[in-house]
Design a protein that fits this description.
Elements: H1 2-6, H2 8-22, H3 27-41, H4 55-61, E1 70-74, H5 80-88, E2 93-98, H6 101-110, E3 119-123, E4 136-142, H7 148-154, E5 155-165, H8 177-186, E6 189-197, E7 200-207
Parallel strand pairs: 1-2, 1-4, 2-3, 4-5
Antiparallel strand pairs: 5-7, 6-7
Helix pairs in contact: 2-3
The structure holds S-adenosylmethionine.
Length: 211
């Protein structure tokens, strides 16, 4: 499986990302294999990660203000992004969501006791989230396919969207910043900021206030 993810799996992830961004309705054809792939790799996922993989994500988080009260880490995998949010914002209620139940099991097992009261992990598909409109002040993605309509729906006015890619354009699940900006601007997001740290990149944007 490690070899699969190293070659064919990376190509599959890039193809699924490109198609889901352009035609979100086609995501359902990619979902079963994507889920199976990440369930299979869950026990060794952390051993495959570069220790600097979340640097751009954390740099972007450091600029988010005011501190979010409710935050979602989408495609959380083994939970490292959700842990980073919970540590940076000590009052935030944080949800880590993922399709792959074995990834979620790892995330729950690893959750530090000090974070357990305000951090939970839930099964959810980012293309159809089980959360009410405006549920979150921050929705973060680390190496995760964005679904812009659902993202726009669950981010509260004035809230933040974050996208980080651990190896920049070399990341298997990657969306170019121009595309992210374009999709977000069309939905009323503003205040774009780019980050580069370690081998990776990130983009942060704020949803406009609507009255
Ligand atoms: C490349 S991994 C990234 C995991 C983690 N964020 C990290 O950076 O280490 C992508 C994760 O997104 C999850 N995923 C992919 N598509 C998803 C979707 N539509 N909804 C929820 N999770 C999804 C996968 O199961 C996998 O755990």
């Amino acid at each position: 499986m490690r070899e699969f993810l190293g070659g064919l799996g990376r190509k599959y992830a890039r193809l699924a990302t490109d198609i889901a961004v352009r035609k979100p309705g086609l995501w359902r054809f990619f979902r079963p294999l994507m889920r199976k792939q990440f369930d299979a790799i869950a026990p060794v996922w952390d051993t495959m990660r570069d220790p600097t993989h979340l640097l751009p994500y954390e740099e972007a988080l450091a600029t988010v203000e005011p501190a979010p009260g409710r935050a979602l880490d989408l495609g959380t995998g083994t939970g490292e992004g959700a842990f980073a949010i919970a540590r940076r914002f000590p009052r935030a209620e944080v949800v880590g969501a993922d399709l792959a139940d074995r990834m979620l099991e790892e995330a729950r097992r690893k959750t530090p006791p000090g974070l357990r009261e305000r951090l939970r992990f839930e099964h959810a598909d980012a293309s159809r989230l089980p959360y009410a409109d405006g549920s979150f002040d921050l929705v973060a993605h680390a190496n995760m396919i964005p679904f812009f309509d659902e993202l726009d729906r669950v981010v509260a006015p004035g809230g933040w969207a974050l996208f980080a890619f651990s190896s920049g354009a070399e990341t298997p699940i990657y969306v170019a910043p121009e595309r992210l900006r374009d999709e977000l601007a069309r939905r009323g997001f503003v205040d774009f900021a780019d980050f580069a740290a370690g081998k990776g990149t990130a983009l942060l944007a704020r949803k406009g206030e609507r009255t």
